[in-house]
Amino acid sequence: MKLDLKLLCMALGLVLCLGENAQVTPCDHDGTTTDKKCQGKRGGTVALKAHGTSTGPVKWKKEASPQPIEITPTKGEYEKNEPNDAVLKILNLKGTSEGKYMTSGGGISPAQNFIVEVADCFGAATDVTCDGKPNGELWLKAIGANTATVTWKKEGTPPTVIENIADKYQKTGAHDSTLKILKLDEDTKGTYEATEGGITPTSQKFKVQVPATSANAGEGNSGVSATNDSNVVSGSSGGKGNSGVSATNDSNVVSNNKGSGDGGNGGRSGSGNGLSYSPALLVIVTLVQLLLQLAN
């Protein structure tokens, strides 16, 4: 079968679009005088949409001292789109992305404000489960803090009141509403509770989970491999260590395997340290392999 390059490009474009759209959080204003609160995941994108624009371009500003900063499109930080710049996309969300964003012009009356909050996990009426990575960071955000300092505790006997500790914990944001766990490990996993400070609900719990590292893991994690020499796309579950994702073309191998595997349900095992890939890229690798098979 002849490989259709146009079809390949369309398929890859679709995968990339799906990966991008999955991380965009929409936040539409209702046109009232009440500030609209918008929650975005760290590293993701939040799309602020002004209500009722019709007569011309919307102006966007961010609250700052001594005066608000006018927002202009900036690669990797801000995008404006839709008719009249009615939507402002804040890209690659981080701590400095938080704050009040204000709109005016374009037929908006009265002015509309958005409060942007950034975290990995946001508090709720029920316990929230937060998955982290060994040695990575995790940001917990208590919602509704507006009157005083939030108190953070880690459950135990007795519970531990969290204070700022270098390379371990950092409390940031208005009223210490954000707790940053700076290095996830066995010691920092567990259940954290936010109280006081006017938060709603008055008690918000976060269950922080950290998977075992490869050195301590028993059973390996399942992975995906794509090989051109054998035309095989398979998932594997290693015996010990972690079998990761690999893309093989004859003798050239790129993988994110760490450690070594000594078996697994008909899967592949190997050793070495390589590069890590996003889920979208792994889907692309698998899709390309399938199309190459069809071409043969």
What's this, in brief?
With 296 residues, the protein is mostly beta strands. The chain has helices spanning 5-21, 279-295; strands at 24-28, 36-41, 45-49, 59-62, 69-70, 78-81, 87-90, 99-104, 112-119, 121-122, 128-131, 138-141, 151-154, 160-161, 169-172, 178-181, 190-195, 203-209, 222-227, 232-237, 246-249, 252-255.
Topology:
Layout: H1 5-21, E1 24-28, E2 36-41, E3 45-49, E4 59-62, E5 69-70, E6 78-81, E7 87-90, E8 99-104, E9 112-119, E10 121-122, E11 128-131, E12 138-141, E13 151-154, E14 160-161, E15 169-172, E16 178-181, E17 190-195, E18 203-209, E19 222-227, E20 232-237, E21 246-249, E22 252-255, H2 279-295
Parallel strand pairs: 1-3, 2-9, 10-12, 11-18, 19-21
Antiparallel strand pairs: 3-7, 4-5, 4-8, 6-7, 8-9, 12-16, 13-14, 13-17, 15-16, 17-18, 19-20, 21-22
